[in-house]
Design the sequence.
């Protein structure tokens, strides 16, 4: 019986590992962004979200699991937007419906639908708030946080998503997975509080444009280091000098190179994570306000809110110092 249970578990863990090593902010990034976003909310919305902070934190990685474990083909394009392939900014479709009229499914599948999916998720979250559907509020909010986090990773907004067009293949996972794993323990989540977005569509596109503006600097930082260092200073190599690949056939960067790259980025990874926190909290808050600021107190037992109130006060004190309590993926950063 143990063997029967063990093999599927190992297959699942392997698949999860592949997903987080190749294309996602990973557990380390996504969980922290969603959890910190709860702490950045104003009351009374924060009180309701805090009652379910563990769910919102852990649910943050589900879109990647759906993409890799369930192999849902419809999921993949929701995570990126290859801006260069859509023409001038002024010509971008403003909604998913407009995008589907202008481009065929093959084009959108290849180049992504991230900004329009965020808009659609916002509409659904607003409706869930308005109708006070607890499970839907929590589920949609947690998943929305994932896509907003992806929208803060520069290479999620570029056709050169893994440096494959500039001989920098492997840069994607190095930037958004390996660097957070190595350095997140030094990050301070002192972020701006949630704000109300008067225009959700504008806020979405401003976010995408701001993130995309970082692509040249990101690639230049890596390129500048590569031209000044030997191969074995950049990549892990074997005795013959050949670059060692990991079990997923990706290059392995040395920790020393990762450290130099992190320094050359001048705080970009931490800054983008912090922007994602504020944006996530702001989108949640905006959906709640646009729904008419419904009273969510009666969606939870009074005893639950009362029990959590002391813990919330302690966590607020920690958060004001830039710290988060109880992140399960802390072990992933060791």
Sequence:
């Amino acid at each position: 019986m143990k063997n029967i249970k063990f093999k599927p578990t190992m297959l699942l863990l392997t698949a999860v590992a592949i997903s987080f090593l190749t294309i996602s902010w990973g557990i380390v990034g996504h969980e922290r962004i969603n959890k910190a976003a709860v702490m950045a909310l104003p009351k009374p919305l924060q009180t309701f979200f805090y009652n379910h902070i563990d769910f919102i934190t852990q649910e943050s990685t589900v879109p990647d699991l759906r993409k890799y474990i369930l192999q849902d083909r419809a999921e993949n394009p929701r995570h990126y937007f290859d801006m260069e392939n859509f023409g001038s900014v002024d010509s971008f479709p403003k909604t998913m419906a407009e995008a589907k009229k202008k481009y065929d499914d093959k084009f959108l599948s290849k180049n992504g639908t991230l900004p329009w999916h965020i808009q659609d998720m916002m509409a659904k979250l607003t409706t869930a708030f308005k109708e006070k559907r607890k499970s839907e509020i929590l589920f949609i909010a947690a998943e929305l946080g994932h896509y907003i986090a992806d929208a803060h990773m520069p290479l999620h907004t570029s056709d050169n998503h893994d440096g494959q067009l500039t001989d920098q293949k492997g840069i994607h996972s190095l930037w958004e997975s390996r660097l957070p794993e190595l350095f997140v323990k030094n990050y301070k989540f002192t972020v701006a509080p949630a704000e109300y977005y008067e225009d959700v569509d504008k806020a979405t596109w401003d976010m995408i444009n701001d993130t995309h503006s970082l692509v040249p600097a990101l690639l230049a930082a890596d390129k500048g280091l590569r031209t000044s260092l030997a191969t074995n200073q950049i990549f892990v190599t074997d005795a013959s000098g050949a670059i060692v690949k990991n079990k997923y056939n990706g290059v392995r960067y040395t920790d020393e190179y990762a450290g130099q790259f992190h320094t050359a980025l001048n705080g970009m990874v931490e800054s983008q994570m912090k922007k994602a926190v504020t944006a996530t909290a702001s989108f949640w808050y905006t959906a709640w306000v646009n729904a008419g600021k419904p009273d969510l107190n009666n969606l939870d037992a009074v005893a639950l809110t009362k029990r959590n109130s002391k813990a919330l006060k302690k966590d607020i004190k920690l958060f004001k110092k830039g710290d988060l309590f109880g992140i399960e993926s802390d072990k992933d950063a060791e």
